[in-house]
Amino acid sequence: MEAPSRLVGLARWSATSVNRMRAWLGLTWRGVCALAAGIVSLVAAVTLLGGVTEDVTQHNGLASSDATHLRLFTDHRPDLVINAARIVTDLGGVFVLVLIAVAAGLLLWYRGVPLVAAAAPAFALGVAATLADVGKNVVDRARPGVGLRLIAEGEPSFPSGHATDSTAVFLTLGLVVAVFLLRRPLARIATVVAGGLLAVAIGVSRLVLGVHWPTDVLAGWALGATAALTVTIGATLLTRAVPPGSQSADGRVPRAVHGLGQLLTAARSPAHRERKLRAA
Fold this sequence. Notes:
Layout lengths: L1 H24 L3 H30 L7 H9 L4 H12 L3 H17 L4 H4 L1 H20 L21 H20 L4 H24 L5 H28 L10 H13 L5 H10 L1
Helix pairs in contact: 2-10, 4-9, 5-7, 5-8, 7-8, 7-10, 8-9, 8-10, 9-10
């Protein structure tokens, strides 16, 4: 009898905690479900990244079949596919992604999205690119043979920087647009899926061009998704935890923290922001 009682008590405590969090953040139950889905997706991305990294560093698992899987992309490469891959892979370059992230941030800010959310794609890109560079230097994996490569690349192979960076930017952008600008569920899903598919296409282009192993790209997708989900969830929660126009607490440090929170969550139109928050 003691075990069932503990389970009932745990269930009641969990329900009470969720209700308090929902009330504090002003979330609907649909918002709570979306937050839970985001957290589950984040855990899945981190788990996938850890598993692939272990396989690559230990030279087993998925990494042991990299050569076989890569041949699926390199054995038959018509000129049309190669030309398309060259165009798509350019979208995953750091310079292009920086321009997209900055331009998207300015447009989101203009549309009334809070500053921290509008800057989320650029911030996710910075986090993802930094972590990818660390991974490259630590793992120091060699790229596929020169005979397979159709473009010149000099950095280590793991993880794919193009897959990492493009996933961070496009997935974050899709999530921010879905959370802060769209209201119809199908439109939200379509926007997030579109961002993910674009990142997938860029990762596949790296395989077609023969400059990465499949596990490099898989790890890049997982790392980029980890950065995108972490930044987007954090930005969303911050905009709800700091109500617009709220009074700051007494004391220098609390006032500084409050001021920083107000700055990060400021929107071009406060009234517009309040309407968006109430509708979510």
